[in-house]
Amino acid sequence: MTWALTTAEKTSYSTRGYLLRESVFSQSQVAAVNEVIDHVETSIVNAAKSGREYWIEDRRFIDYGAHTLQLAPAPMDAHLRVLEPVHSLAHELFELINDDRILDPVRDLIGCEGLSVWTNKINFKRPGGSAFGWHQDAPYWIHDAIDLQKLPNVMIALDDVGPDSGCFRVISGSHRRGILPARNDGSQLEGFFTHPDAIDLKQSIEFSMPAGALLFFDPLIVHGSTQNTSPLRRRALIATYQPAHYPSLKSKAVVNLGSSG
Ligand SMILES: O=C(O)CCC(=O)C(=O)O
């Protein structure tokens, strides 16, 4: 069985900068992953008490080994907002990001057979979880990546996402405009968010998607997500790939995947 992209899907990705595949993982596969994630969260939050804590604006981070934990704001501050990377924290998570249902399409997007891990993270987006501002990923990675053009992302939906549960959204076609100007509003994180004047909101697409769906998106596409105003969690794992034998973002270890792994 191959999960390769059709010609229409490849064209869609190259013109729009994203591609949605629904019902790739079953509800029971997603439930099993979510159970593992709950354990991983509890154990790393505990272990990271010995990590290095710092704040960026009102966000609390802890670096623990090669992992970065971003804590949810109070009163949920015993919980995570984002955890990166995750593939080394449980074999089930490694198997998920090493699954051919993801690797085959990514091979087509990068144009090579051998793949390795660039990075991956879980966004926990609890009820009330804040919006994620419009940004491109490429500016975060520009100083570390060997080939910035070959870092496709895949978002694995781990909960059903409806209009009020923190939809992922993109500016369709924005990946074709290169690195866009950043906000210059004097904030500490201004360099990482796209300047509002460079965003064509008419091209905005929001994704309601069922758990188990995959959304592939380009490292240059402007994207973000809305606030989770629902009473439910909106977990997602975003994995980013690169050609085999390249060092990964945080630990610099080479983590080859598929048959080259
Ligand atoms: O999961 C989300 O809400 C958005 C995440 C995102 O944009 C990112 O991690 O780059």
The residue ranges in which pLDDT falls below 50 over 5 or more consecutive positions are none
CATH H-level homologous superfamily name? q2cbj1_9rhob like domain
Q: Would you list the SSEs in sequence order as H and E?
A: HEHEEEEHHEEHEEEEEEE
Q: Which architecture does the CATH hierarchy give at level 2?
A: Sandwich
Bound small molecules, by name, code or SMILES, are: 2-oxoglutaric acid
Assembly annotation: single chain
The first-to-last residue Cα distance is 19 Å
CATH topology: Jelly Rolls
Please give the number of β-strands. Answer: 14
Computed CA radius of gyration, to the nearest angstrom: 17 Å
Q: Figure out the total of helices.
A: 5
- Approximately how much helix is present in the residues? 10-25%
Q: Estimate what percentage of residues fall within beta strands.
A: 25-35%
Describe this structure in words.
This protein is an alpha+beta fold and 261 residues long. The protein has a single domain (7-260), classed as Sandwich (Jelly Rolls). The chain contains five helices and 14 strands. A hairpin with a 2-residue loop joins strand 3 (59-64) and strand 4 (67-71). Bound molecules: 2-oxoglutaric acid. The site of 2-oxoglutaric acid has 11 residues, from strand 12 and strand 13.
